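Title: Prediction job returns without error message
Component: structure pipeline
Severity: low
Priority: P3
Assignee: unassigned

Description:
Job completed but the reporter wants confirmation the result is attached to the right record. Sequence as submitted:
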Amino acid sequence: MPQKLLRVLQALKDENMTLPVFLEELFKSDDQQVAQWTGQFHEKLGAGRVLRIWGDRLNNKKWQREDEDFVNSAVDVVVSRTLDHLNNNDIKQHWRLKYKLVTEEKVKSLLNNDFRFLYRYAEGAKYLNRFLKGLLEESDHELLSVPIKNGRRPSSVRGCITAMLIFMLSREVNAFQTIMGLFLHCTGCPKRVLQALSGLGLSVSYSQVQKVLKSLTIDAREQVKKAVTKHDWYIVYDNINIANKHHHQRIDKRDTFDNGTAATLILFPFDKARSPAAPLCLFRPEDERPELTAELFFPKDVDWEVFQRVCRSHISAAIVRSLPKDSAAVAIPILPIKKLDINKTVLFPLQTMKLDEYTIAGNLAVLERITRDGLRLPEEWLADPKNTIVAGDQMTVSRLLTLKIHRIVDTDPYQSLSWVHPTLQLFHLRMNLCGTIFRTHYGSPLHTGSLAAINIFIDTKRLSKDKLEFKATDEFLRIVFDAMVKMLYKSLRKGSALDELDIPKLTETITNSICGLPSPSLFGLPCTTVNANALLLLRDIAVHIELDEAIKAGDIGRISHLLPIITLMMHGGGNTNYALEMLRLLYGIRHLWTDEWATRILSSMLVNPKGIDGEWMATDMLQENHNYLLKSIFSAKGSNMTWEYLRDSISTNIRTFQAISRMFEREVGVRSNSTKHKKSSTAKEIFTIEQYLQKNGILCEPESSKCKEVVAVADLQRLGGDKMVGGSIARFLDRHRIDNAVDLEETEALENVIN
């Protein structure tokens, strides 16, 4: 030890100086030798070791009264160092969002890695993060996958506190508060609540949220403008109806029901083999078109073969569901035919329009508003329009076809609407098919085996023949399907020595009995009307299930083979409008269109917003989801919401709102407060229907020979074939014309022709 330091120590000893005073003098000393020794003390982490020792000693009850000065000093050091780090320009730049420059890309870049948004916020402030971890009793090795503590995720709490502190230091470092404001707004949070949370530093103010929404809308419109010039695209639109209720009724202020239209632009996946600018060939040459006969519209042998294959799969799946959970049996897989490539569908919600698309004039106004204002297509496109698919329900297609008839003589390419190709979509077709099956087999509660009698027996609510609720009806038909397949499975097992794992053999027998003419004799059952009705119902429900499963799989090959069968059923069920549209669709696919354009038409019926296999959905279902979100936000805002606000600030940002909502719910561990989208157990309903079938001798050996009232159900496929042969196909072909390579249809004139 230096002699000078020894002399200092001796002097301090003689003066009875305390250790704190000595250390203070030591660390303040300007002497080079003293500074060298104190520097080594810091270099060897001496300060940290001393603090840990003092902290351990001060935890002793004997010294608790003496630790106030120590704790205050330690806090001052932590606050000073933390503030210096929080005021770092790198942190400010990373979490800064200017209200008028917010874009969808910026929001998504902040929300990447799903629920790591707040985690990254917390980890960015290392000193504050370490301090908060200690206060939250969160160990360093804990990961995001650790179960949530007391209903909260510690990393999210740290991130939220960090974001609030940074925001209080600088109002411009507002990324968390901006996204929180959007989240509150898109979930229907009242303005006063948002303002209160803004005062707490959890959100930006309401006026700033409005600035962000306008910026997002401007960015969305610019993105649409770029997309339509670089990619192939199509549009889907549907009506959106909103009820405006006034609690204080007046002559000039009464309840109203506003009709509008919402639309979405969807990009086709880029085909590397073809440039997006290259025009598609729509129509086959005359010499390559097949012979135009009635057989063109009927299912071919390959269509029936495909249906039998998929039917085996659905029946085997129902059998497997009826077996114990520990059973090793598996369903027969379905081999894909023509699946679409799994790509995340790129789509752009467009601005809503207060235009009624129920009328012909309304559809024309919608088309013009979308192309001229929504997409802002350049003049060169309007001068030479590209062939564009317009997706919608049957009524939309009908109105657009009529418009094309009226505009055929127009010499202007855009005004003639020759570029518009209306295309029926699958979700509305599914709903219509479901309703056709339900009404055909509903019967009366007095008719044994009818859906009405089964409905009364199991006491299912929300089922009505006159006013169908699709979700309830779809679920009911699937439950009946499983119960009847289970009953047939038991009947076959009783009469044979087959093991439960011999599902392919059992399935083959059941499939053969329902495909074609119903054959109860294959089961050794009486060929009674009630058994024939039950097998017809199984066959029809199998068609409905297959359409849904083919959509989810994204297999347009399976869909194209199913369309002729659905066409028969639409005719058989007396569904005039859809029967006509199915004829037009089949005519195009099998006779008129090139394979490339037919594939393009079928591809436009499906989208995959998540880019995940098995997550395909009908295009019009996507638009229905958008409409539901728009209605939810509209109704939550009450009298403050207008159509102009819905158009300018909400409609184009629906996908951004969905991303923000998913992020927050995952981040903070929000659990669903509803079970409406979760699959509930149907075991009780299936068991109850089994009891009904057993009691009435349906698809099993009857317990008694007592005659009960039974009415034969119409065979939708055979009846539909008779109607098509009886004149509907001939009338369709007689009225169908092709002029200048554009297929036309006198739709409204034909709507009441097919009986």
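Comment from assignee: result matches the submitted record. The longest strand covers residues 233-244.
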